[in-house]
Amino acid sequence: MLEIESIATIASHSALQIMKGAKQEGFRTALICLKDRINVYSRFRHLIDNYLIIREYKDIVSKGIQKSLLDLNAIIIPHGSFVEYVGVDNIYRIECPVFGNRKLLEWEHNQFKKYELLKSAEISVPKVYNDPSEVDRLVIVKLPGAKGGQGYFLAKNKNELIRKADKLKINLAEALIQEYIIGTPMYFQYFYSPLFNRLELLGSDIRYESNIDGLKRIPFHIADPTFTVVGNIPVVLRESLLSQVFDYGEKFVSITKEKVPPGAIGPYCLEAVCTNHLKIIVFEFSGRIVAGTNLYIMGSPYSWLYFDEPMSMGRRIAREIKLALENNELNKVIS
Ligand code: AMP
After folding, report:
1. Domain edges within the chain
2. Per-residue pLDDT tens for 152-198?
3. What is the rounded CA–CA span in Å between residue 128 and residue 112?
4. For a pocket test of ligand 1, which of 273, 280, 282, 288 has the largest count of ligand atoms closer than 8 A to its C-beta?
């Protein structure tokens, strides 16, 4: 039987929350840390039992780090940096258990697969154009490998799309051309527990993005909007929206069980825009913890409805691992 003693992650994204949650649930912790980030993370040394130092993110799959993780009986918690910087192929090379479904990270990484998964779940999604000449409205263009909203651009019509793509030397066949939904962006932070077969909504947030969120401060349009995430702000949903939010959350769990078995495990996020007709349209998902959960390190208005104690997403993950170990069901939560 597998033993788990330490919870490990990469020093970035939501690492502090994950370390704190692990400590709250009685685990030891290990932080895989870029050399030049030690200065930040060592300020929280009471949360970190072991540092595994790397020179670049991909070093996580080096023999030395893998051995250290195995020696520590560690389980890895993947977050956004695993998808963006470690590389999805490398995720399969991690030898110790990984919390969640590694395959879902692979789907998350591919914009086209991601969109198809949402669509086949019968979740409302924006229209996608395969042929640029068919563009008949405002679109957002997502280039392959764009990270954290960086590298997206808007085009008002097909002529502008083709002109901008030429200027930026972009091959539109490789880009996802998606209808731009006007409304309020909202991100729903779910946790699916395979142990209890229960879907929990643990929080919601809005991303603060530069410079689209700064443009409203000036009276006229002087720059093209960009979508680089710089932070997150909390939002509590109008309560009547919850039926759509739970419906989409459940549809997501079902479709992942069917197409990406064993399906979603633990945290995931649906990223949406709510229109003025109160219709929620989902343009993305993340198949792991999202950075917006950092808002709720003391718990959120939603987590408080489930738990009479502060329950961050990081702590919820550690709690699921602890319960899985106690019930001899670790295989249900790792891949
Ligand atoms: P993403 O990296 O895909 O989460 O997107 C970055 C940001 O782009 C989002 O937070 C939204 O502000 C914006 N965005 C992406 N897709 C759409 C869409 N189809 N409609 C409206 N806004 C979008």
Report:
1. 6-98, 108-124+183-332, 128-179
2. 899 999 999 999 999 988 899 999 999 999 999 999 999 999 999 99
3. 10
4. 273
Q: Taking a C-beta distance cutoff of 8 angstroms, is the pair 99, 288 a contact? A: no
Q: Which CATH architecture has domain 6-98?
A: 3-Layer(aba) Sandwich (3.40)
User: Is the Cβ atom of 185 under 6 angstroms away from ligand 1?
Assistant: yes
234-266 pLDDT tens trace:
999 999 999 999 999 999 999 999 999 999 999
What HEC string does 200-211 produce?
Answer: EEEEEEEEEEEE
Mutate to test the pocket of ligand 1, among 283, 285, 288 (most ligand atoms within 8 A of CB): 283
The DSSP H or E segment spanning 155 is strand 152-155
Task: Place 10 in a pLDDT band, splitting at 50, 70 and 90.
Answer: very high
**Under 8 Å between Cβ of 8 and 30:** yes
Ligand 1 geometric centre to CA of 161 (Å): 17
Arch. (CATH architecture) of 108-124+183-332: 2-Layer Sandwich (3.30)
Ligand 1 proximity of 126 Cβ (cutoff 6 Å): yes
The architecture CATH gives domain 128-179: 2-Layer Sandwich (3.30)
Q: What is the identity of the amino acid at 225?
A: P
Nearest atom in ligand 1 to the alpha carbon of residue 181 is 20
**Strand 184-193 to 50-54 pairing:** unpaired
Considering the entire predicted model, what is its pTM? Answer: 0.95
* Distance from Cα 148 to the centre of ligand 1, integer Å: 10
Average pLDDT over residues 106-122: 95
Burial label for 50, CB within 10 Å (0-12, 13-18, 19+), is middle
Q: Is 132 in the pocket of ligand 1 (CB under 6 A)?
A: no
> Ligand 1 centroid vs 283 CA: distance in angstroms?
7
> 76 CA to middle of ligand 1, Å?
28
